[in-house]
Structures are given as structure tokens and as C-alpha cells.
UniProtKB/TrEMBL annotation:
The keyword Cell membrane does not apply. This is RING-type E3 ubiquitin transferase. Its EC number is 2.3.2.27. One of its GO terms (molecular function) is ubiquitin protein ligase activity. Signal peptide: none annotated. InterPro entries: ARM-like (IPR011989), ARM-type_fold (IPR016024), Armadillo (IPR000225), RING-Ubox_PUB (IPR045210), Ubox_domain (IPR003613), Znf_RING/FYVE/PHD (IPR013083). The keyword DNA-binding does not apply. The lineage of its organism: Eukaryota, Viridiplantae, Streptophyta, Embryophyta, Tracheophyta. It comes from Aegilops tauschii (Tausch's goatgrass).
């Protein structure tokens, strides 16, 4: 009943009515129950509900989603948080079904290279789980001293692994200790940025209610992913495809479940051809969606095995339509390279290495940054910087032997401190 109560409250806020119509309450409750039974909502019923609460266009729907997401960050009850997440999922599905052919008034090609694209702020690296790369909700410390989100590290251990995912160290035990100080920092960051912070402790009754709401949230996310991928398969114009891919990008931005649903729906092979698009917005959305999907291990496999996926991402690193697209393509390659077997395969691809080095060449002062890291960074940073310097020097030497301009790579002049005269 939490979803119904929440929907009623939203009705009062949006429609300025003293009390929502009983018929609307019945419709919402029936819709949620059908979603839990994996029944896809009818378009007419979605239109009826949104019209009743005063949502008549994609802008107002997006605003309501953003408002709910801000409220989620202030909730201390898991059952209410779960209910609100489910309602956000329902609104997002309704937005895709009802308004996918109508862009927001602010949408335009001029907005392609603007950093603030309406997405929630990215969490600082120290607040993200090293496994999922998502904001940690329940940070715990493993025996190696590294902190992970409980759900992610539990899943790691459940797969039969007994090593630290970040360091590779064999763990003395699999005990996990809550990192309360970091959790307080995460809560503070969530409050300041209006981001949802799920609470993991709850009474049994709250947990039971949250499970029901979560089931609805998961089912509506699965439906949204399936709908978007089907819509993309029949989107023949760049403008129509761009709107659908943007929604895929947003859906896959957070949550391993969302990424799994999008990957399972078959999004990867449909995104690959769009990477060659000359439309700046479409190319950026497509490569960002692939980056988001690649965070999930199963999707890494889908991308690496998709025909032409690596070959499509690679040239974007040097000749993408925007600098953001080039950066994102490089991040996608690095994400794929986090798996050892894929790293070896990518490393044997001369085009991948060449484009990465070209990307480095375009950064002013990169040689000094690498040199500083080798001299003053952490042990791990010094090793990585030295490796990058060696790669650049080898590539520059090979290019010079072939008479190419690659020898001009600024990073090729970097010499590890140990090799310099004292």
C-alpha cells in the first residue's frame, strides 16, 4: 500500500485537489499489482493517470521524476525509499511510452557539449564501489582494508572468489566490517546533491513492504528496457534514434539491474552502428550508453563479442564528433580492459593502442603530469605512470621507424626518475 499512499500524495501536490479521486486510487493500485505480475501497462491507462496528476508533456514528466529523486535522498525509511523508486520507474516508463516522440523544449543540438545534461551529479571516486562503480549504499571493509558496497562484495564472494577485487590479494577471511564514517560522508553528499540514499536497516515489516515495492520497481525497469530496445529497432531517423538512445543512457547510468535489463534486451548490437553517426548528440549518447553498460561484467562480454563493437569505439577516441565523445570512448575501452582476457585482446589490437596514444598527445602538459606521478604519486600511480611512459616511447619509436609523425608524442620524452642522472 505504500505505492498507493505515495501516489495519492503526488496527486494532491500536482493536481491541487483536496483528495484524489477514488477511481484514480483504484487505477494506480491495479496498475502496480499488474506490474508485479509482469503484465505490461496499457498506454491508455498510463495516459489517464498522468493526465489526472497534471503531467501532459515530457518536460513536466521529467521534472516530476527529478523532484521525486530529490525527495528520495531525504527519506529515512527503506519502505518509502523503495516505493518512491518504484514510482520513479513507473513515471520513466510512462515517459518513454507516451512522450518518446516528443523532445523536451530545451533539447537541441546546441546542448550536445554542455556538461550539465540534466543527469544527477556524479559521485566522487572515493564514494563509489570499486566493483560496480556506483555510489555505495552500505560500505563495508574487507580483510584487505579496501571498502566495497556490501551487495557487490557479497556477490563477488558468492561467485566463489576469495580475493580482494581491487588488489588481487588472497583474503585471510571473508568477514566484512561496516564503514560507518564513510557511510556518514555518503549520506551527507546525498543530502547536498539530492541523490537517493537507501537505508539498509529496517524492521521486518518494512523489509517485507520494501520487497514488494522493489519487485514493482524491477519489473517496470525491465519493461522500460525492453520497450526502449524495441523502439530503437524501428527508429530510422537520427533524431528519433537519439531520443531513444538518450533514454537508454539514462536508464543504464545507475543500478546493476538496469544495466542487466538493457543488456539482456539486446541493446549492444543496436548501439554499435550508431557509433559511426555524424550526428554529435547521437554518437555521444551511443558511446556513453555503451560505457554505462560496460560497468556490468556480463555486458563487457556482450560488447567484446558484438560484431564490430571494438572497431566502432576505437576511432571515436581520435576522431569523435566532440571531445566528450572521445573521452567517453577511451573510458569505455578502459572499462573493458579491466577484465584480464579482454585487456590482452585489446592490447594486441594496434589500432586501440594507437588511438589511446593519440588521445594522450592531445593533452597539453601530459609529459609533466606523467613525470610528476612517477616521482611523487602512490606506488600504484608510479607504476601506472611508468608503464604509460614506456608505451608512449615504444609507440613513438615504432612510428619514427615507419616515417610517421607519431614520434612527436609529447609523452614519449618522459623518462622514469630511476633512469635519470642523479
Amino acid at each position: 500500500m505504500d505505492l498507493l499512499a505515495l501516489a495519492s500524495r503526488q496527486c494532491r501536490r500536482c493536481a491541487s485537489a483536496a483528495e484524489p479521486e477514488p477511481a484514480l486510487k483504484t487505477t494506480v493500485l491495479s496498475l502496480i499489482e499488474e506490474i508485479e505480475r509482469e503484465i505490461v501497462p496499457e498506454r491508455e491507462r498510463l495516459e489517464e493517470i498522468l493526465e489526472e496528476v497534471g503531467i501532459n508533456d515530457p518536460a513536466s514528466c521529467s521534472d516530476e521524476i527529478e523532484s521525486l529523486e530529490r525527495e528520495i535522498g531525504d527519506r529515512a525509511s527503506e519502505r518509502w525509499t523503495a516505493a518512491m523508486i518504484a514510482l520513479v520507474g513507473l513515471l520513466r516508463y510512462a515517459k518513454c511510452v507516451l512522450f518518446s516522440a516528443t523532445p523536451r523544449p530545451s533539447d537541441s543540438k546546441a546542448d550536445v557539449d554542455v556538461e550539465d545534461d540534466g543527469e544527477s551529479p556524479a559521485p566522487p571516486p572515493d564514494l563509489r564501489c570499486p566493483i560496480s562503480l556506483d555510489l555505495m549504499r552500505d560500505p563495508v571493509v574487507a580483510a584487505s582494508g579496501q571498502t566495497y558496497d556490501r551487495e557487490s562484495i557479497d556477490r563477488w564472494f558468492s561467485s566463489g572468489k576469495s580475493t580482494c577485487p581491487k588488489t588481487g590479494q588472497v583474503l585471510a577471511n571473508l568477514e566484512l566490517v561496516p564503514n560507518k564514517s564513510l557511510k556518514n560522508l555518503i549520506s551527507k553528499w546525498c543530502r547536498e546533491n539530492g541523490v537517493a540514499m537507501e537505508v539498509c536497516e529496517a524492521s521486518k515489516s518494512e523489509q517485507a513492504q520494501a520487497v514488494a515495492a522493489n519487485k514493482a520497481a524491477l519489473e517496470v525497469a525491465r519493461m522500460t528496457a525492453s520497450y526502449l530496445v524495441k523502439k530503437l529497432s524501428v527508429s530510422f531517423s537520427p533524431d528519433a534514434a537519439n531520443r531513444v538512445v538518450h533514454e537508454i543512457r539514462l536508464l543504464s547510468k545507475s543500478g546493476s539491474d538496469n544495466r542487466a535489463f538493457v543488456g539482456e534486451a539486446g541493446a549492444v548490437p543496436m548501439l554499435v552502428p550508431l557509433l559511426y553517426s555524424e550526428d554529435a548528440g547521437l554518437q555521444l549518447n551511443a558511446v556513453t550508453a555503451l560505457l554505462n553498460l560496460s560497468i556490468l561484467e556480463a555486458n563487457k562480454k556482450r560488447i567484446m563479442h558484438a560484431d564490430g563493437a571494438v572497431e566502432a569505439v576505437t576511432p571515436i577516441m581520435s576522431s569523435g564528433t566532440t571531445w566528450r565523445a572521445r573521452e567517453t570512448a577511451a573510458a569505455a575501452v578502459l572499462s573493458l580492459a579491466s577484465v584480464h582476457t579482454y585487456r590482452r585482446r585489446l592490447g594486441r589490437n594496434p589500432s586501440v593502442v594507437e588511438k589511446l596514444v593519440h588521445l594522450v598527445m592531445g593533452v597539453a602538459g601530459v609529459e609533466w603530469a606523467i613525470w610528476e606521478l612517477m616521482g611523487t604519486g602512490t606506488d600504484r600511480a608510479r607504476r601506472k605512470a611508468a608503464s604509460l611512459g614506456r608505451i608512449c616511447r615504444r609507440w613513438a619509436a615504432a612510428s619514427a621507424a615507419d616515417g610517421e609523425r607519431g614520434a612527436e608524442c609529447p609523452a614519449s620524452s618522459v623518462v622514469p626518475p630511476a633512469m635519470m642522472a642523479s
